[in-house]
Amino acid sequence: MNESQLNNNVDILTKWIDSNKKNFSHLNGVTEEDKLKLLKPIGELVLCCDLMIRNNLKKDWALICMEWAWEELEKGEFLKKTILARPSLIMVCSLYATFHKNGFYNYKLLKLLEYNVNSSYTLAMQYPYWRRLDLDLAFYEIGLSTEFSPNFESTWSFHQPEPWMIDNESGYALTHEVFYITKFGELLTLIPKKSLEYIKRWLPVWRTIFLKDDNFDIYAELLMTSACIGGDKKLLSDYIIIENEIKRFGFLRGPEHGGKSLCEGVTSKDRILFLKNYHTTLVGVMAFCLYKRLIGNEYLF
């Protein structure tokens, strides 16, 4: 797949995103609780835009889309109100960090986050380790901590689990640990050599497993993982599989139960179609972002 084909695939996916932009808004929620749940779609859209900007892939489109999301979130005021009402939702710091590093600032929110980050409450909160990595990286990127130093012994891959026992939950942990520790492929030095070798050895097998399960969500995230650590040569054919799916549907299909928690109580067929497939479609765009970085790269393993 050359850069022209890559751009064509991304054009198809971004057209689908444009046609569904209103569906990404948290304002589709009827209750305040609904609106908090719907921070997930808009937050993932913002992360996707950030990766597009970083990798110079439809950068102008991504900036316009991010500006739309910033306005939807009341220029950060909705996030501020969220933290004030629900300190346990400190994870919105990750969403704000993505805005902040792209030039969208809310200094009152930043001040509030600074207080919460240093509170005993936040330090005592229990998260899956990949979630803690996301939070710690966000703190670092907006200057609320002086270093980002992951404890790799707390990761899933450090223990080199039996590779045939991987499932949705462990696949999600593996991929997101790599995303945050490498800053989406920008930094490799924090992964121990043995763990890196283990991940490289088994990634092609894991991609095959999730492809057979018709799970393009984790399959595409495993493509991203491969790209984050250099990329193996089999990626070239694996991306063709993604391309064929996109040409067939105009988006990248989510797994059978994709968006299940968000679909509860929803009756609109169009809305359900969006909620089931938006996440995997965004992951497809992000996978192409990282693939763009690999084109012409000599360190494919």
- What spatial form do the alpha-carbon principal axes imply? globular
Question: Runs with pLDDT <50, length 5+?
Answer: none
- List the quaternary state of the chains: single chain
What is the beta-strand fraction? under 5%
Number of helices: 15
Mean pLDDT: 93
Order of helices and strands: HHHHHHHHHHHHHHH
Give a quick rundown of the structure.
This protein is an all-alpha fold and 301 residues long.
Describe this structure in words.
The chain is an all-alpha fold and 301 residues long. It has a domain at 3-27 and 155-294. Helices cover 64% and strands 0% of the residues. It has helices spanning 3-19, 32-37, 39-54, 59-72, 77-85, 92-100, 107-117, 120-124, 129-141, 168-181, 193-212, 216-228, 235-249, 260-263, 269-294. The longest helix is centred in the C-terminal third of the chain and has 26 residues, at 269-294. The two termini are 18 Å apart.
Descriptive terms for the model:
301 residues; mainly alpha; 15 helices; 64% helix
Please render the helix and strand layout as text:
Layout: H1 3-19, H2 32-37, H3 39-54, H4 59-72, H5 77-85, H6 92-100, H7 107-117, H8 120-124, H9 129-141, H10 168-181, H11 193-212, H12 216-228, H13 235-249, H14 260-263, H15 269-294
